[in-house]
Hints:
There is one protein chain. This protein is α+β, with helices and mostly antiparallel strands. It has 13 helices and 13 strands. The strands form 3 sheets. It has a 5-stranded mixed beta sheet with strand order 5-6-1-7-8. The radius of gyration is 24 Å and the shape is globular.
Amino acid sequence: xxxxxxxxxFDMNSFYASVAQAEEPALMGRPVGVLTTDAxxxxxxxxxxxxxxxxxxMGTRQDEARRLCPGIVFRPxxxxxxxxxxxxxxxxxxxxxxxxxxxxxxxxxxxxxxSQQELSRAMQIGHDLQQxxxxxxxxxxxxxxxxxxxxxxxxxxxxxxxxxxLHWLLPHVLPDRLAHLAxxxxxxxxxxxxxxxxxxxxxxxxxxxxxxxxxARAIWxxxxxxxxxxxxxxxxxxxxxxxxxxIGHGQVLTAGNKTPEGARLVARRLLVKAAARLRREGFHxxxxxxxxxxxxxxxxxHGGDIRATQDTFFLLEVLGRYWTALPPxxxxxxxxxxxxxxxxxxxxxxxxxxxxxxxxLCAVVDRLNQRFGQDxxxxxxxxxxxxxxxxAKIAFGRIPTxxxxxx
Length: 407
């Protein structure tokens, strides 16, 4: 019997730390911790393989990392550099196999067709892909590759060995090949879902694998549970397409911005960035929400529906009213969200809209900043403390574009 797989999933190993080593080859082979920012109190958001083996991981403070891993070197994350390497990696992969979908800054999947699906051929393709990244981008950038009939299984196969693993999963070796994993090692099983599964008597991966699909639907509370289980078993599952519903940015306030006025100016800057994305991505927003986390009151917020717009001036006016109704005390973080997105082509003219149309002016500001650099033209005062990459940080499920770093 010929073994066949249809999905190839690749996962860059210790991506942020590997990028730091690619930028500074002298760091290769040394333990590296990547910090949220270049500050004494900053924590690690990533660590190199050597540092991970000594217990350094996400959230580890610098002093603790030094205790666990003497000789560790720290570098602040450079989001624009990481995005540049991300695109270089995609170009290298495309020399071997077309990319089907980008899942995050360090994860992508490809579809195998025809003779590519034969396991021996697929394994060679996986090896060629790993080598292409090493040769064309940097020897510091290693990736693990998984092969399977579904994306979920391919992702799990890629995680079986790091760094540089190349593994496959097919139904005839399941669930034994996954029996050593904890429930929350499975992508999509959060600690909350793990608790729900355990409450239902499902305490390990083999028990989940043999679960009745209808019971999985009941435990999840929707059809996603059945889809997840069938994909775990290697069955073809069609997931519905998701649609963009909002654009949002948030920021934990630095010491220099932890005042009501500093927080207000940070909120304005985040909204300016979000509005520029609206225009660039071709959407109008129909709601605006503001949230502030305070030291004593916790999260407070204000928001509501607005006329469909991509006018930064109008959005800042609305934000000003929301802020007046929401005076924060000892703010710690702020976020703004533009919701109810509709494509530009789907927006109807508003009979009661102001006669003055400022979209053209906003577009001119966008072009000037893209051409001459960030904040060439500003919408009012900037926050007291400048924080790099405001509104242009890499987040789960979102990879900034080159334009994000210039707005």
